[in-house]
Amino acid sequence: MTETTEPSTASAEPSGTDPDATAAEQHGTDPASTFTELYGTEPDGIWAAPGRVNLIGEYTDFNDGFVLPLALPHTARAAVSRRDDGVLRLYSSDVPGGVVSLRVDELAPHPGHGWAAYPAGVLWALREAGHPVTGADIALTSTVPTGAGLSSSAALEVVTALALNDLFDLGLPAAELAVTGRRAENDFVGVPCGIMDQMASACCTEGHALHLDTRDLSLRQVPFDLASQGLTLLVVDTRVKHALGDGAYAERRAGCEEGARLLGIPMLRDLPYANLDAALTTLADAGADESVIRCVRHVVGENRRVEQVIALLDGGDVRAAGPVLNEGHRSLRDDLRVSCPELDLVVEAAMAAGALGARMTGGGFGGSAVVLVEEAAAGTVAKAVSEAFAAAGHAAPGIFDAIPSAGARRLR
Ligand code: ADP
Ligand code: MG
Questions:
Q1: 230 Cβ partners below 8 Å, 6+ apart?
Q2: Could you identify the atom of ligand 1 that is nearest to the CA of residue 16?
Q3: Which residue from 106, 257, 259, 383 has the fewest beta carbons nearer than 10 Å?
């Protein structure tokens, strides 16, 4: 990896760390002018891919279960030109360090690529899959808050995959681009994430949540028109990330696998909710660890909660989804034990101030929560959460409207 240029647009902090910006402010810098400034030509095109927030369905995607994410108005955008000489040049206006220049035939997973591992990993994964991608010049910028559990990483992967798909006429469907992004993150970056984030970024549509079956990647767009119902979904970014998270994720994952093994089923997805009580008794009789029992109870209950919320959205009764969100939070807090004081405080303060429902979203131990609230009460609830954070001595949270937005697309 060589660093060649340090353009004037470089900044020390990702621009995506201002989650207070409204949808109208989600422009960020212009990747096309950055591209021209850096590389001296016009880009072949501009692409965008959003971050996402998961409405419900947590710790289910590695159990072949269900998730229900929606795309955010916040996007990663890429100005890209094709190259045929084996060179890949990468630049992000959100991190310092200038242009990263790589040779595509030398790409290999190893630590030390830093942020560039995400887009480079996508090109690597495409080539690993046999696609003739011969290089590119890329200028990236993103308004997705990083490390807040809103999938800034998937946005980066999917926007890169979509641009290369178009420029090299690969003809890959959106789900295949998501799989490519996940492969990059798992095997090139080295992060053991599930498929939800990339699928959400690639496949979501405006005004909908995405019902994704992570077993076969079948999906359905579930109407989720909050505005017409007088509702708001707030995202509250706690701006904390407790170190516990990575180890705990692996531990819960192992607990789920152990539960399925003891029950003699391929995946926890294969346990119907109606059989949950009997299965928990079986596990207790088999001497299963309490933590395994908790994992099974959470995952099977959570898959059911996804189905409950979908039925409510389909029936037009979005308000009634509130208590299901709360039930999901309780399960993540008490059974799976992946919440943290800051996330619990968001839920408590929001509910006390009149929210319809609230839950942590994403992997937990920090990151973000979602709050379903009457549009008219959104300001009051947001204020109450901010005040509760101040009273507890926490830094101010980032709070914004999760407007269900479009998935990845070409802008020009
Ligand atoms: P999340 O996906 O929840 O935001 P991750 O830890 O999975 O958090 O991904 C964050 C990482 O993705 C950052 O540390 C950085 O390496 C990379 N990244 C995200 N957005 C950008 C960006 N705009 N420019 C450069 N790198 C980025
Ligand atoms: Mg991520």
A1: 374, 375, 376
A2: 23
A3: 106
Question: What separation in angstroms does the CA of 137 have from each of 77, 79, 164?
Answer: 14, 8, 10
Residue 381 one-letter amino acid: V
Q: What is the pLDDT of residue 27?
A: 56
* Protein residue with least CA distance to atom 12, ligand 1: 153
262-315 confidence digits (pLDDT tens)? 999 999 999 999 999 999 999 999 999 999 999 999 999 999 999 999 999 999
For residues 34 and 79, the answer to whether their CB atoms sit within 8 Å is yes
Q: Which two tokens stand for residue 245?
A: 């998270």
Cα(227) to centroid of ligand 1, in Å? 30
- Does any ligand 1 atom lie closer than 6 A to the CB of residue 149? yes
| 11 CA → ligand 1 middle, Å | 15
Looking at the domain that runs over 19-224+405-410, which CATH code has it been given?
3.30.230.10
Q: What per-residue confidence (pLDDT) applies to 247?
A: 87
Q: Whose CA is nearest to atom 6 of ligand 1?
A: 147
Please indicate whether residue 153, judged by its CB atom, sits closer than 6 Å to ligand 1: yes
Q: Does domain 227-401 have CATH number 3.20.20.70?
A: no
* Global confidence as pTM: 0.93
Mean pLDDT for the stretch of residues 19-23: 40
* DSSP letter (8 states) at residue 139: E
Residue length of the chain = 412
- The residue extents of the domains of the chain are 19-224+405-410, 227-401
DSSP codes of every residue in 35-63: HHHHHSS--SEEEEEEEEEESS--S-TTT
Please give the C-alpha separations between residue 13 and each of 16, 96, 123, 141, 142, in angstroms, as whole numbers: 8, 8, 25, 12, 12
Residue type, 65: G
Mean predicted confidence (pLDDT) in 204-216: 98
Give Cα 155 distance to the centre of its chain.
Answer: 8
Q: Over the stretch 40-76, which tens digit does the pLDDT of each residue have?
A: 999 999 999 999 999 999 999 999 999 999 999 999 9
Q: How far does the centroid of ligand 2 lie from the alpha carbon of residue 153, in Å? A: 4
Q: What is the pLDDT of residues 312-364, one digit of tens each?
A: 999 999 999 999 999 999 999 999 999 999 999 999 999 999 999 999 999 99
Catalytic residues: 197
Give CA–CA dist 149/154, Å, rounded: 11
